Amino acid sequence: MRRTLVAVTFFLLLLGVWQLATLSGRWSSVLLPSPAMVGE
Fold it and tell me: What is the number of domains present in the chain?
């Protein structure tokens, strides 16, 4: 159970950092698309 919680937390944090990176506008959406664009 603990291992699953750690894995889920890690991936949620990774998605959050990815989303913040795309919102920063530092990189083009062609080079770094948002998680929602990748999901589509």
Answer: 1
The amino acid at 38: V
pLDDT for 27 beyond 90: no
- Rounded Cα distance between 16 and 18, Å, is 5
Locate tokens 């999901």: which residue? 39
Whole-model pTM? 0.79
Cβ neighbours of residue 23 under 8 Å, at least 6 residues apart?
34
Residues spanned by the domain of 28: 2-39
CB 22 within 8 A of CB 15: no
